[in-house]
Each structure stands twice: as structure tokens, then as C-alpha cells.
Amino acid sequence: MRYRKKPAVIEAFQYDGDLKGSDGRYYVPDWAVKAYEDGTMYYGELDGQPGELFIKTLEGVHHVSVGDYIIQDVNGELYPCKPDIFEKTYEVAE
Fold first, then answer.
1. Contact 74, 10 (CB under 8 A)
2. What is the pTM of this model?
């Protein structure tokens, strides 16, 4: 059988390597700020490199690369998505 993904509106932003501007203020959605402040999103080390972003999900911890989209799904869960997959799966909603 074949299946089509049900239309669902999600919120997302493209990660550019930071969550705050040079003025120290967040420039990401409020839900991302909350996730960072409660530890769902956090900075850690990957392969000896500090300052890498991670997200705790139901499936485990996922690394977020610069350029990835961070998605909040319809259930409020956060997860990263590679740009090519994001562009094939999502379009701007009105």
C-alpha cells in the first residue's frame, strides 16, 4: 500500500550556528528559547569540538548541524531536519 503524509502545520527555523545575536538577545522562536532554557536543546562537545547544538528527542539525542532546520511538530516535540529533506517535505503555510 502507498500512503500520503497528512497535511500538518509545523513551526521551524533554520539554525545558523547560534540562538542569540551579538546583543545577547534571542532571535529564535519562543518555543526554542524555552527548549534551550529547560535543557531539551543544549550545547555540548562532538568529536572534541565544543559548542555543538544537540536536541533531546523521544528517539534519543540528535546533533544539529549549521543549516539544519529545527522543527517543532504538532505534538510539541523538537527535532532537527536536513535542509534537502525539509525542502522536499514542507512548504510555507499561510
1. yes
2. 0.89
